[in-house]
Structures are given as C-alpha cells and as structure tokens.
Amino acid sequence: MTRATEKRIFLTRHAQAEHNVEDDYSIHDAPLTALGREQARKLHEDVKDTIQQTAGLLVTSGLRRTMSTAIIGYATLRTRLEAEGKAVVVLPQLQECNEFPCDRGSSKEVLEADAEFAGLDLGNLTPDWNSKKGFYASDSKALKARAQWNRQWLRARPERDIVVVAHGDCLRYITDGENSLKPWANCEVREYTFAVDAEEDEAGVAWLVLVQKVAQEGADEPTSSALA
C-alpha cells in the first residue's frame, strides 16, 4: 500500500457557478455558468495528458457545480476509471460550508433524475446530507471535524493519485484547518501530499502540505463566506 507521504492529492475548486457572477447566494445548488463550463473544458485540455493518466480515483462534492466540473474537467480520467469499474465517487463530506441556498445540495432523488449526473456514484448521499445539521452543520467545530474526516479518508484510500473537486471554503478548511480566506480560484488545481504517515500522526489530523500549483482557469471568485 502506498505510504501517505508518497500520495499525490490533486485538490480542485469548481469552475465559475451562477452564484459567483453577481454574488447571489440565494440560488439553490448553483450550477455552472456557460463560462464555468468553458473553464472546465480548458482544465481538461491542460491536464488530460498528465494527472488524468495517473489518478486512480476521482472524488467530488455532491453539489451540481462540483459534479459538473468533475464530469467536464476530468472527462478523460472518468472514462478511464469507469472502464476499470470505478465510478466517480460523490462525497457529501466535501460540500460547501455555509447554509446559504447556493451551498445546500439537492436530494439524491433529484440528482438521480438529472441526466448529466448519470453514472456517478451517489450512494453516499443520505437523506440528511443537505440538512446542514449535525455532522453537516456549518459551525466551525463541525467544519473542522468534517475537514479532518476528509483528510483521513483520503489518506486511508489505497490509490496513490487522487483527484478531488470541491469548494473554496471547504478546501480552506481541508488545507489550512480553518477558513483562512486564502484565495482559491475557479478551476484551480493544486497538488498536495501528507505531512507524515499515519503511524506517525498520533493526533490523527492528517495534515496536507502543498507540493505545487498545477492549473488555474478562472478568477478568484468570492465564496459565500463573504456574507456569512
């Protein structure tokens, strides 16, 4: 099994979505704009011959904008993995942090009825995944716990190279341990690895360390934390 410090975790923020354009956070489960879809297509061209050839897993948040970014931006990777019997994994734990409608996902049943998301593994989307309560709450304690859960989950996976598509605030909690407000551009990809192997991590925090910036197709559009 690959050691944690040998892993390559490619964290990706979604492409431009409708709520980014006018800072309108009332749009429920905001989808990508036309520009966002173009950004995702550019991302695909930029990384189709590199990380899409090596990654062993593609994981995305369950919101529309992240799933669409994964489908378009990592189309080559998705096709290759599905040929190996590995569907795109949709993780509710990667959802965006705040309680605004734009950050609240749709139900599993609604997403299953949308042809764009056919073939994705939606099995982890339990009825409470978009409740913003309990484990999915938006308070700092819950967000830090969820970020740690995501890091531990990624560290425990057997794949060496993993591509993750998530959200600006979520990615800040995962990489910085808090909402640091450090910029994450739309369709930006960064490579991380783990600071130490699991057996050396007594606290179980599974911290990541930045290796390099891989790509960026959009601007540093604000997240809903600008109003939170």
TrEMBL record:
Q: Which SUPFAM superfamilies does this UniProt record tie to the protein?
A: Phosphoglycerate mutase-like
InterPro entries per record? His_Pase_superF_clade-1, His_PPase_superfam, PGM_Phosphatase
A cellular component term from Gene Ontology for this protein is: cytoplasm
Q: Which domain of life is it from?
A: Eukaryota
GO MF annotations for this entry?
A: phosphatase activity
Per UniProt, what is one Pfam family of this protein?
His_Phos_1
PANTHER family associated with the record: BROAD-SPECIFICITY PHOSPHATASE YOR283W-RELATED, PHOSPHATASE SPAC5H10.03-RELATED
- Name of the featured protein: Phosphoglycerate mutase-like protein
